[in-house]
Specification:
With 221 residues, the protein is mostly beta strands. Helix content is 0%, strand content 58%. The strands form 3 sheets. The protein has a 16-stranded antiparallel sheet that branches. It has a 3-stranded antiparallel sheet with strand order 5-6-7, with no helix packed on it. Strand 9 and strand 10 form a beta hairpin. The N terminus is likely disordered.
Length: 221
Amino acid sequence: MKTVVLYLFLTILSFKLVSQTKNGTQLKTKYGKIVDLGKEPLGTIRYKDNFVLYKGRIFSGILIETDYMGHKLLYSEYKDGKVNGKYELYGANGKLKEKYSSFNGLRNGLYEKYFYPSGKINIRANYKNGKIDGISEIFFESGKTKSKGNYKDGIEITYIEYWSNGNPLLTRNYEVSPGLRKCLFQRFRENGVLENTGMVINDTSDVIDGKNYDENGKLIN
């Protein structure tokens, strides 16, 4: 008996269905009923207009997906068609790839992404009402910090990026006043020597008061 695997992509208009074992994808509705999608017709679940639908109706409950070996691929909690609660995405090897909590479809609290084949963390950030808020870090596979930013309501306040040896590569700091947002940046060579500096106004791409330095850190222009 052919069955289906449901791959949930929240950025496309529908779900992609492929071969799966009969226990591969389940729904646990708000009434506690377990539904095995292997016994349901194709297209039973849809993602449309930012809502998850089950048999054409807005879905509330738990979506669980596993592969043919029984490894968990997805665990997601929904209310009124939107992620509301825990969301966990796993790779084919059963290792966690991404997890966060959501309220009414918006990320809230800690967000973590595990991109590397080793399973080590790649991104750790904090969200508030769907926007990055607080500290956000990206890591090298070694575990060292690759970049670190501080955000408020999705707006960058400070930012620093590192070379793999731990030396700073780029820093951004901001001066904000009504109608004016200045970004003061510094870029460094891998050995830690200053390479250039400048300022950007109101998040444009135009550099003001740019300065360049030679390999010894001496001002060129």
